[in-house]
Amino acid sequence: MRAVAEQRNDVPSGDTGASAPRSVAVVGAGITGLVTAYALRRRGVQVTLYEASRHTGGSIRTTHTDGFLAEHGPNSFVTSAPVEALIAQLDLQDDVVEANPDANRRFVVRDGVLQAFPMTPTAMLTTRLFSLRAKMRVLLEPLVRRGASATDESIASFVRRRLGREVLDYAVDPFISGIFAGDTEALSMAHAFPRVVELERAHGSLSAGLMAQRRRAKSPAASAPEPGAPGAPQETAPFARARLISFVDGMQTLTDALEASLAGTLQLGCPVRLLHRDGSRWVVEAGEDGATTSRTFDAVVMATPAHVLAAMELPAELRAMAAPVERVAYPPVSTLTLGFARADVAHALDGFGMLIPSQEKRSLLGALFTSSLFPDRTPDGHVSITCFVGGARLPERAREDTDLLVERVLIDLRQLLGVRGEPVYAHHVYWPRAIPQYTVGYQAVKDAADATEATNPGLYLGGNYRNGVSVGDCVASGEQIADRVEAYITRAG
Ligand SMILES: Cc1cc2nc3c(=O)[nH]c(=O)nc-3n(C[C@H](O)[C@H](O)[C@H](O)COP(=O)(O)OP(=O)(O)OC[C@H]3O[C@@H](n4cnc5c(N)ncnc54)[C@H](O)[C@@H]3O)c2cc1C
Predict the structure, then answer these.
(1) 77 CB less than 6 Å from ligand 1?
(2) What is the CATH number of the domain that holds 139?
(3) Could you tell me if 139 and 206 lie in one domain?
(4) 334 CB within 6 A, ligand 1
(5) How many domains does the chain have?
(6) What is the sign, positive or negative, of the torsion defined by CA atoms of 442, 448, 454, 458?
(7) Which of 11, 51, 115, 175 is buried most deeply by CB count within 10 Å?
(8) Same domain as 336, residue 310
(9) 18 with 291: CB under 8 angstroms?
């Protein structure tokens, strides 16, 4: 990996061409901003990447202490064609680690006992996670009528209608906590899971839709996405299979590699405070108190969390138009990575982790069996478990101090996993605003973002509140924004 670092720096700087290069400010060096800046620079555009904190990566950060590896945010992500292409461009193929195949096993807690989530029809028949009545209800799913297509339905309402209450409580509720740290009654099915809604719309039921998908996957034309399906992959390159991955040294490998390739463009510790138009160009004022500088660009990409707009000085009409964007909710989450001597944990930890339904009334939203997922995350003879606390379910608990949090989480781990003794390692990260909530009515946010861009040529709004929260979504979105910015500055030039 290190031998190819020079290649990463080979990305053209954009200032060697004969004609004056167009200049773009990218604001926020999380994965979205890094990918946008990287993709623009590869196209020969002159980029300045502003980052408020002293490091790049945003939610992606890895800490190594005493032989333990702790992720502050994402622990793994699912690949797609844009992700695989980025990994190849950065020459990171040898650094990728795929999750242990045992990671297919996910546990859900019911009545204080871990139950493997059923992944096959046979497992569904025999699982103790659902009652006989709930299983019968799932079998009736093909008979349930389509919902009204104009309704923006909550996830809870959609699942209750199609699959019944118990599937909502013991399957969907814990999975939603795992992805959004969110509340199924508040989140919008159409905005959080557009492809599932599309299955119902196109095929009448989820069962029929899934069967059609399986048939298509087996047919020779399998790689073609259903035309016009929301969330259908944009890519045209052949893509073998999605992998659940991280990197040998953790997730930060990806953002460090992007940072290394962006040498000379990055302004760390440089929050953008003010944005306004000057003719067809954009003025960006950035820096710490008393040391701000002002520069003019052809285009600006805001790749920050949505609420950052509220703290910035903006032209009044832009502020008014973007108001619904500023109001997107981000509940708090604490991540707590705990290390134990292997002998002090009774459970085999043979899976991805455990998800905990709201009904179980526990402190934990869920926990990843981190040292089972990827090798070399702990010293020999130890295991690590990454716990998630708070979210929309229990926001106040995310804010508790480390000692109290460890105490509360240990109660759950002792009862659920047979943990004995004390942790030998604890790493706590508090995210005051963790993940954007795609709530019912989210179309107003998307419309406001679209209208803001349409009426402010050269301004782009990106980040995980726009096109999906996963790392893979953010990579794809960064690439797409770069395409749009390039088209704009080419037209304008
Ligand atoms: C606890 C947690 C666990 C997660 N787990 C997973 C997972 O397992 N798998 C997965 O795929 N996804 C996961 N996610 C989601 C995923 O990590 C995020 O959606 C994604 O990393 C967000 O990237 P981003 O670039 O859009 O935003 P961010 O990472 O939030 O980056 C935005 C950047 O903008 C900067 N900024 C803010 N204001 C300014 C300003 N005024 N000027 C300049 N810079 C500014 C910030 O400092 C930050 O660096 C998780 C997220 C969290 C929080």
Answers:
(1) yes
(2) 1.10.3110.10
(3) yes
(4) no
(5) 3
(6) negative
(7) 51
(8) no
(9) no
**Last-in-domain residue among 431, 446, 480:** 431
Domain range for 37 is 2-60+249-328+437-492
Beta carbons within 8 Å of 360's beta carbon, 6+ residues apart: 109, 110, 111, 112
Beta bridge partner(s), residue 65: 68
List per-residue pLDDT tens for the chain, 493 residues long: 333 233 333 344 444 444 566 899 999 999 999 999 999 999 999 999 999 999 999 999 999 999 999 999 999 999 999 999 999 999 999 999 999 988 889 999 999 999 999 999 899 999 999 999 999 999 999 999 888 777 899 999 999 999 999 999 999 999 999 999 999 999 999 999 999 999 999 999 999 999 898 888 777 554 433 333 323 333 334 456 899 999 999 999 999 999 999 999 999 999 999 999 999 999 999 998 888 999 999 999 999 999 999 999 999 999 999 999 999 999 999 999 999 999 999 999 999 999 999 999 999 999 999 999 998 999 999 999 999 999 999 999 999 999 999 999 999 999 999 999 999 999 999 999 999 999 999 999 999 999 999 999 999 999 999 999 999 999 999 999 999 999 999 987 7
Angular region, 297: left φ>0, alpha ψ -120 to 50, beta rest: beta
User: Does the residue 80 lie in any domain?
Assistant: no
| 212 and 135 belong to one structural domain | yes
Q: Whose CA is nearest to atom 5 of ligand 1?
A: 74
Question: Last residue of a domain, which of 408, 431, 454?
Answer: 431
Is there an atom of ligand 1 within 6 Å of 471 CB?
yes
Is the residue at 185 inside a domain? yes
Whose Cα sits closest to atom 42 in ligand 1? Answer: 271
303 CB within 6 A, ligand 1: yes
Q: Which residues contact 241 (CB under 8 A, 6 or more apart)?
A: none
pTM for the predicted model, two decimal places: 0.92
145 to 167, 196, 205: CA distances (angstroms): 18, 15, 8
Any ligand 1 atom below 6 A from CB of 178: no
